[in-house]
Amino acid sequence: MNKNGKVHLRASNIPQKRERFLADFFTSFIDAKWRWVFALYTVGFLFSWTFFGTVYYVIFWFRRKYDNGVVCVEKVDCWTSAFLFSVESQTTIGYGGRQITPECPEAVIFLLLQSLTGFMLSTSLLGLIFAKLSRPRPRAQMVMFSKHAVIAPFNGFLSLMFRVGDARKSQLLDVQISLHCFRFRTTANGQEILVSQQELPVSTERGIEAGERISPFLLMPLTIVHVIDDRSPLYELGAQDLAFSRMEIVAVLEGVVESTGMVTQARTSYLAEEIIWGQRFHPISVFRSISERGLKVDLSSFDKTYRVTTPSLSAKEYEQSMNKGRKYMKCEKSKGEEISEQSSGHCEYQVWIPKEQAPGSSMKNRESYSNNNCRVV
């Protein structure tokens, strides 16, 4: 999938492909490119004008040869004039120079058929153009996803985070955000195989409860958080493991367009190289506009990140180190207290304690460990 949500995957070797697409020809036309739509209708109109013009010329020729020159269409004496009469009739131009006479009922019947054919072509083309122009898909272009996802500590857990926002003033209604993880494997003969597909629980940085899908009010850009716990496919992946993994994270936002009531969907994709380890997003600032009433959101820092102290450990190893750190930080005794019988005496552990760096600082990302000598109770 591209960053703009376009899916590269295409179906091939479809059984009864033509019959399936023709059974849903309206959707096929809606999904077709504009050039194919206009080419198809151009061919349809040209065929209709040419077919009925040829019919009028054949009627004129037979009547003139076998019916003593009965005039079926006034001022039609060749194929070109019959073709022009066909165009004038179907497009209701009505120059007034050519017209059907009541002498030939077959010509009247074909005139009615051509009128119905032109009506069907014109109304279907109008409906198709309206349906293509009113599709909610372009509304998704105003939904912004951060260029990168980041992994950093959040509330004591390693978490995957990305940012989403809406650039339009009109709000999307009933917004739902979900996150999906796809894992691939390449076989010996070069084929791509989907190993697993999993929907990841997400929440927001500001306290919406975690779930497979969340429904935030997208008033301003939000940071979406996936806590990497033992249910996550990222749980046992460290920084180096993630860099070499065949993994794709797909973020999906669905919402109802306020003006039309149609459902739109915006998507983006994060590959392993697009997930930055040890970074956090800069906060989004809100300021009061002097020229206009109300507040404005500054989106200049939408994609900006800053470094935070983050180990290259996997979430599993990080959780274990944090648990050990909490256990042994409580084991120190004040001077004069005796060691419990269950104590093992002297111990030394590497414990990482997260300490975020303020935005704008130039401190490099590094692993920070503290060695503690403590008594175990």
The CATH topology of the largest domain corresponds to Immunoglobulin-like
Relative helix content: 25-40%
Reported CATH architecture of the largest domain: Sandwich
Helix-strand makeup class: alpha+beta
Can you give the mean pLDDT? Answer: 79
Task: Based on Cα principal axes, name the global outline.
Answer: elongated
- The CATH fourth-level homologous superfamily of the largest domain: G protein-activated inward rectifier potassium channel 1
Compute the number of helices: 7
Order of helices and strands: HHHHHEEEEEEEEHEEEEEEEHEE
* Rg over CA atoms: 35 Å
Number of separate domains:
3
Low-confidence region ranges: 327-377
Portion of residues in beta strands equals 25-35%
Distance between the termini: 53 Å
CATH class of the largest domain: Mainly Beta
Major sheet details: 6 strands, mixed
